[in-house]
Task: structure prediction
Amino acid sequence: MQNLKKRFQLFHKHFPYLSIQEQIENFAVFDGLELNNIQLNTNVFENIKRYIIDDFSKLKTEFYDDKDMKVILQKLALGDRKQYAIYKNKKFSQKRGRMLYKELFDNQIISKEFTREKILKSSKHKPLKKELRRYSAENKLRFTKNFHRFWYTFISPYEDKMEQKDENIIKNIDKNLEKYISLTFEELSNELIKEKYFNLNIVETGSYWDKNIEIDMLSKDINGNYIVGECKWTNQKICKNILRKLQSKVKKMDFEVTKFALFSKNGFSSTFKKEKKDDTILFDLEMFKRLNND
Result:
């Protein structure tokens, strides 16, 4: 199975005429579809209509028809991706859920994203509170192909309306696509910060979550220093307020953070760029072209 960067580079080779924004938008949707069979244009919505909505009858045969499996995959696509939530379903037993999860994992439809939360341990001198003794950290699950995530987010829940090409399906995609792409942008941001060009010497990176907070990026460099990052796939420029919120989250973490990294689809306010300190690194969309360099 190719890693994310290799898949993004392959996507770029198929569609080098797309701008970096168009590449990310379409990669978030079509990664995992047979790329030799499509010729994408610059508008992601037109591509969705042509290659997914219009081809629904043909594509649906490639996906699970089992009702329980659909429940699990839709929950994974639309929920918080916590591993144990996949079993918590009144429609079937936990045993059935575990069996279906194993099938998905064996078939490489999903993979596991391991928690990096530091679990507190009780001692004779400092016993844990009752609620903390019951708490257990959870791994998250992710789709190995973006096309599968798109399908179970926007298509599978509305299969009964697809043949009629209900206009509400397109309206739902239009309304929620930006939020959907945000996860792909976050994953690509975690790849970008590892690029040698930036001289950050990153040895470990990924999203971070615990019982109190979730952040898009927690990176560790070769010297054991931590960088915390926030990724924004919106049409608004990032201002200082976003950094303040990130700094507030850091106060709840059990990591000593030395730098902050902000990744923006639409750049940064001029005031913020002038006032930013040396401990803050800004990544605009143009920098993502670095991912296509070998």
The domain at 188-292 is CATH 3.40.1350.10 (Trna Endonuclease; Chain: A, domain 1). Strands lie at 110-113, 140-143, 202-204, 208-209, 214-215, 217-221, 226-232, 257-264, 280-283.
